[in-house]
From TrEMBL:
It holds the Pfam family Cyt-b5. This is Cytochrome b5. InterPro entries: Cyt_B5-like_heme/steroid-bd (IPR001199), Cyt_B5-like_heme/steroid_sf (IPR036400). It comes from the Bacteria. It comes from Arundinibacter roseus. SMART domains: Cyt-b5. Gene3D superfamilies: Cytochrome b5-like heme/steroid binding domain (3.10.120.10). Residues 4-75 form the Cytochrome b5 heme-binding domain.
Amino acid sequence: MKEYTRAQLALRNGQDREEIWCAYQGLIYDVSPSRLWKNGKHYEHWAGQDLTQELSAAPHTDGVFSRFIIIGKLK
């Protein structure tokens, strides 16, 4: 599985490129297909970063990531 740095992940924020990626527990997910991540923002959360610490404040579980393709690993 390909590895990406935090800087490479940050470029996939829905603003700099078309890809909208988020990391969770060391894995990077492509959330581009979700209308809830339009323009790289989902409520108060921003794409292009590791959301592991932020998930505890979400109204859903980490099962939500099963809907998305894993792109790679976070270095």
